[in-house]
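User: Here's a chain of 470 residues. Predict its fold as tokens.
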Amino acid sequence: MRRTQTYELLRNYGAPNRNGAPRPMKMGTTASLYPYDAAAAKAIRPDNQRRTTILRYASWAAVFPIPLVVRLHLDSGHFDQSQDRRDGPIPDEARRRVGSKPQFCRQSFRVWRASNNFVRRPSLRPSPESQNEAIVMRFLAMFTVAMLLCVAAASAEPGVDWDILDPREAARVAPIQDAVQDYARKYRPTAIVVVQDDRLVATSGDIARKVNVHSVRKSLLSALFGIAIERGQIDIGKTLEQLGVDDNAPSLTPDEKQATVHQLLMARSGIYHPAAYETREQKVARPPRGAHPPGTFWYYNNWDFNALGAIYTKATGSNVFESFAKLIAGPIGMQDFTPYSGMSIGDSSSLYRAYVFSMSARDLARFGLLFLNQGRWNGTTVISTRWVAESTKAYSETDRKGREYGYLWWVLDEGVYGRDAILASGYGGQLIAVVPEKRLVVAQVVELDQGRTGIHTTDFLDLVRDVMLH
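Assistant: Prediction complete.
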């Protein structure tokens, strides 16, 4: 017996007529709009003992471990004499009982049998068994709705504005807010944002103010590489020689040109050419040219990071800032970043310029939350889960205590911060900490253009650990 895939039992469809097509029932309430399959259709039949109708929805069973069984309680019945011509005469007993006008009786409904033209006599009172079933089925329906709401709440990344904490939870997060305020009074950052369970729980300062985030730019670029690799635009196994990458004199040696994009992402290229936008400490610590073959030694190397920006632009045909605005900032609803929130800075030492981002604390927090939620935002994949896991895995030990290095991300000590905790870190206190085991993101920016000395990363991580305790 063929039936439509969307089954509106009360409003639209009755039992099939002799040609097998659905026939309208003139009843006033839609019972369900959910699809069902052929097996479910066979369950829609009159029951001589209880006169109930049961639907088993396969689509709901795919979500929950038990099949959802919904018992339909139909409160009205309407015998339409105009259908006599299609279905044969209605039995005299039924006609006498119903008459020519609609008859309504509580807790009852008429049932058309497909195999013969017969109208069952409505039950005037539900049986005790039916009442018990009704209670059970109503409970199952309520339980299902509650489960769906819980699933929706589990991935409730913010929309245009951040979700504000429920006032009833104020007491729970008060220690976090106190810790942030104490830290702010002591170190005076431009802004701090603390997010837990996808909601804003504490802030300090002007969270909308955009600041040069310095080396946080490297973690932002890592995310863009993940998208480009997923689209097949970049092959990280290619060497610089294959990509035609060279630099000012003294240009790259044949050995240096064998470094791969993969090794640049890990800061293990072995290329110690002067680079734009280096700090004084980087210049002093830079090894001599040829000191280490590609892939054998980790060094926090601005040449690698700047060259990656050029490689990305050439491969995708879009500059870093435009790509970030379109592929990441827009999809996750960053409130302050635009394609003009950055600039490239270079000098005569190298062909490759540094791409410098200006971002607010609340936008950095969204970026951290994107990685906390495995690259997904409100049900949409922005960065592949595979790349999130691969780029935040530790590949190198570093000269920073308690920190290893992934693909342009710092990886925090698992014994202190739990599994998969990561850090984006920029000069002067530009920081994003992501702590998955606590569902926690902490972002900070510090304006350095007014002679301020900045905030040490170790002081910021002290705050993160303090917040983790609450």
